[in-house]
Amino acid sequence: MINPACAPERLYVLDTSVLIHDPTALFRFQEHGVCLPMAVLTELDAAKQGHSDIARSARQASRFLDGLLSDTDRAALTAGVPLAGADPGATGRLWFHHADDRPGDTGILASADQLSRELRHTRVTLVSKDVNLRVRALASGLRAEDYRSDRVTEDLDLLHSGIATIPDAQWEEARETLLESGHEGWRIPLPPETGWFPGQCLHHDASGFEGVVRHTEPGACWAEPTQDYRNGVGPWGIQARNQEQNFALNLLMDPEMDFVSLLGPAGTGKTLLTLAAGLEQTLEQNRFAEIIMTRATIAIGEDIGYLPGSEEEKMTPWMGALADNLEVLGQPESGGEWGRAATADLIHSRIKLRSLSFMRGRTFVRRLLILDEAQNLTSKQMKALITRAGPGTKVVCMGNLGQIDTPYLTESSSGLSWAVQRLRNWPHSGHITLQRGERSRLADFANEAL
């Protein structure tokens, strides 16, 4: 229970869904108080069995609690357990509360309600990733809100697109120079209050210049011109159809870019461009030994149940986009039927399908690791996958933030958004938001109208 004399000005009652989503949530409330109803501890105990991400999160949250309570006596429990965690400056405290024996959400609501009535001078707020629980709390006259500490930005429009326009004033002062890499480039003054960073794509439409920032210095950046894949033959015979796709192909083909993220709705060419660049660098340039492709297996409709076969056979139904694009990429202009069959066999021999469930502990060396439907991954899952990269490996994440199917994830808390924001200042990462659909006029209209 909470001693009213020790009660904080603000007290946040955490739902189980918050700790499952982010076990470190206990330490995210700085100077404010945190309260865990006993129903939450019961649910954590029930969820800890198994090898799923939910079970791992439940066990990690329990370990945090065990570490906090290892040297705590009963008096400290009523006064609040310090929650310094990784931030020594944090002054928040942790309490536990038991309202009654009602289980689950009902018990959590009962604790929040009782605390709000007992602690008259404390602002009590229920924090949950469960929309229905928040609605029940608000309908009962309680304060409730979503867990926001996992959001990389409050406004998705602020998520950078990876492309910026060079103002005329800056272009007039730009001068051609020699970059550290030995290539010809441009020194471009930075616009006022604009933060360009390495890996960002720039263009000046009047002059036709398109380039990638290689490094920055106070007041200026150094940009290298990109290769134009819209004219002539591009990687694996694929041509870019617009400026965004051309920037994407340049980042995908660039050996200096170890991480590339592609956002965009269906039909913008994310998978086709990535596979074309991957096949070119694997089969023609021998930069990669093979292509590893995986994705979050979240069904849109009813679950089809357990699938028979090996790991690769189980993943095949989830990789329809891969099969569709390989049909396009496996059609050589010459060689007839025999040539097409030989090309298809060669392509399939160098592309491996892997499940996310078996990624832990692995290290990929000289591989192109493609994460499809990455918008359905949490930040924790995204970190676990990106850190599988060994020497010579490139990671490409693709996704559409408008098609998130994972419970409790939003556009601003998706692991894909998190990776884009956290890695954008690293010189060996690049990002492009593709907006122009190139699939068909029906697909383009459906994206806008539906």
Itemize the secondary structure elements and their pairings.
Blueprint: E1 10-14, H1 16-21, E2 33-37, H2 38-47, H3 53-69, H4 74-79, E3 81-82, E4 93-97, H5 104-118, E5 123-127, H6 131-139, E6 143-145, E7 163-165, H7 168-173, E8 175-178, E9 184-189, E10 201-204, E11 209-217, E12 220-225, H8 243-253, E13 259-263, H9 270-284, E14 290-295, H10 311-315, H11 320-329, H12 336-349, E15 351-353, E16 367-372, H13 379-386, E17 394-399, H14 415-423, E18 429-433, H15 441-449
Parallel strand pairs: 1-2, 1-5, 2-4, 5-6, 7-10, 13-17, 13-18, 14-15, 14-16, 16-17
Antiparallel strand pairs: 3-4, 8-9, 9-12, 10-11, 11-12
Helix pairs in contact: 2-3, 2-5, 8-9, 9-11, 13-14
Keywords: ATP-binding, Nucleotide-binding
Family: Belongs to the PhoH family. In the N-terminal section; belongs to the PINc/VapC protein family.
Pfam families: PhoH, PIN_4
Distance between the termini: 51 Å
Biggest sheet, spatial arrangement of strands:
3-4-2-1-5-6
Q: What is the 3D form?
A: elongated
How many strands, which pairing sense, and closed or not: the largest β-sheet?
6 strands, mixed
Q: What share of residues is helical?
A: 25-40%
Number of strands: 18
Q: Per DSSP, what share of the residues sits in E-state strands of 2 or more residues?
A: 15-25%
How many helices? The count is 15
Number of domains as seen in the coordinates: 3
How large, in whole angstroms, is the Cα Rg? 26 Å
Low-pLDDT runs: 299-304
Q: Kindly state the mean pLDDT as a whole number? A: 85
Report the CATH topology name of the largest domain: Rossmann fold
Structural class determined from secondary elements: alpha/beta
CATH architecture of the largest domain, by name, is 3-Layer(aba) Sandwich
Given this structure, which CATH class of the largest domain is correct? Answer: Alpha Beta
| CATH homologous superfamily placement of the largest domain | P-loop containing nucleotide triphosphate hydrolases
InterPro entries: P-loop_NTPase, PhoH, PhoH2-like, PIN-like_dom_sf, PIN_dom
Domain PIN: 10-135
GO molecular function, one term: ATP binding
Pfam families: PhoH, PIN_4
